[in-house]
Amino acid sequence: MGYRLIDTAQVYRNEDMVGAAVADLIADGTVRRQDLFITTKIAPNKQGAGKAYDSVLASRAALQVNVIDLVLVHWPGAAKIKPDSPENARLRRETWLELERAVLDGLVRYIGVSNYTAAHVRELLSYCTIRPAALQMELHPAYQPADVLDMCKTAGIFVQAYSSLGEGHLLDEKAWPMPVVQEAASKRGATRAQVLLAWARHRGWGTVPKSTRDERLAENLASGRIDLTEEEVVGINALACDFKFCWNPNVVR
After folding, report:
1. What is the pLDDT of residue 16?
2. Domain end (from 113, 132, 151)
């Protein structure tokens, strides 16, 4: 269909399957490695000195690539550590230093974070030598945390949205009417999902919409051909109500 970004993670437990599929596609000439962008993420139980670097090596082997394009710290907290424990901050720092080492050793092209709050990003910027290339986070019309977005813009951190459709809830017109979204879709003969993805693109964010259905995959990709007016973008911006559908990293110290 034209997709060239693969987004996986250690906790998804499918890196080996992704690696095998990519190897097959490259072997039969369907794609070239240089045309793919592969992202994976450090699991919460792999954080800290002596763990994070080794987990990058394991991911690299499972994915069957010489260099991983982007590795993210999946969560600001560590496994089996209470959210309010200062140990989380120590392990975040150790993990980042291990990722910087992986970049210097040529194992990874870019490093970044996922689910970090503005406080977590500020902390990271205070000690990093290699700045985060990206922050992947929940983003959709109902949840647009200005503090995080403003910090990323100032620091030059690329924002990548997940749950752009609110885990599907924002496609329910009765539960989430959002007239500006519905009107924009009707005007173009598009779907609500396409308008939501187009809005994220207009905001300058990347998106990683998930689907197992071919028709939805094609529909999502086609959203790249939809251009919204400035008035429509502003109207959708105004839907922000600090409502999250996913986990809350604000509880992690």
Report:
1. 98
2. 132
